[in-house]
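Readers of this paper often ask what the protein records in our data store actually look like. Nothing more is needed to write down the fold, since each code stands for a local backbone conformation. Below, we set out a record of this kind in full and without editing:
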Amino acid sequence: MSAKVSAARTRVGKYEMGRTLGEGSFAKVKFAKNVETGEFVAIKIVDRDHVRRHKMVEQIKREISTMKLIKHPNVIKIIEVMASKTKIYIILEFIDGGELFDKIAKKGRLKEDEARRYFQQLINAVDYCHSRGVYHRDLKPENLLLDSHGVLKISDFGLSAFSQQVREDGLLHTACGTPNYVAPEVLNNKGYDGRTSDVWSCGVILFVLMAGFLPFEGSNLGMLYRKISKADFTCPSWFSNAAKKFIKRILDPNPVTRITIPQILKDEWFIKGYKPPQFDKEEDVNLDDVDAVFNDSKEHLVTERKEKPVSMNAFELISRAQGFSLENLFEKQTGLVKRETRFSSQRPANEIMSKIEEAAKPLGFNVRKGNYKMKLQGDKSGRKGQLSVATEVFEVAPSLHIVEVRKTGGDTLEFHKFYKNFSTGLKDVVWKTEENTQELRAENK
């Protein structure tokens, strides 16, 4: 996408592409609009060559097919799948309320009743997935999204396993997931039940929601694993006695005696205010699009083409794109940032690009730039590898630009720290509205 919103935009089939929502090593997720219905969607774009080179074709085909079969109000829905000669496009339901992780980062911790509501939705979804032979294996707050009504949606089934992968002993044998959320039996390399390991991860999530911090932490992986193996944790004093008792039944290091989902659904703490999931009218699931994509059917290939959209002014753009809400556009630059943030500027695009480069280099970042986009790569290894950041400049009116800054790799807290230092070097190009100036004056008094 070029810096100018009024320039050509990419169209794939009936979908017009927008901003990048996230990216990984071989895939990225973009915001898009169905031009026939006006519906907003998210499109996960996967590189076909990468999939073939890493022998991931069957895994991804199985993942997509299974996800199309999972129709649950608390699981992100796959709408359809398309392919071009070089890419696979997975069309997903667009969830506009952010990650549950962001809610914790903002509030510190949730009240017990609010945490219970999210946990009830999580268990409903996990129970449904297990009934379809799907084990998530990477449940954590970052993979739980919220829609605009606060409804929880499980995302990212990239590490999920399926009942067909269970060996003759009835167990899974691939250790995976995020260390702080992984069950003890996953770490001991003796095989594990995907159902009980998912329950453990749900317990860690519940603890984090109510405490605002992790139950298991260590200065190194060895110490962390020892604490997990012994279930060495302490509930904070503000947990109710019923909640403490419930969490200890979930974070039981012995998977045989650990509470099961049927038992969770009857627990006195869990059932308070419980609402069963409300399912939409059952629809027939069609996997023809998945077969066409992975059978290299040339008659079903789509092409990426550039189209010129209707020009719109800045405030029309803001009102139509959730990510460009007024709250985000005029947020204080010194405030807490998440995995992405944005600011507005009345300076020319080339000047903004130069200032970004000037601000990034003294912080130890290598810079690659082109077409009003910039990739910043940290030269030091942090808690989750090197911090990497992507920026992009959009022109929404002749005298107004929006600059998007998002983390593409590394640790989120390190990104927060980076952005605090980075933004001080950009103060000459950030548009300071009268409201922002008054807030800054009030803070400095």
Q: What stands out?
A: The chain has three domains: 1-94, 100-264, 325-444. The chain has a mean pLDDT of 76. The radius of gyration is 23 Å. The first strand starts at residue 9 and ends at 12.
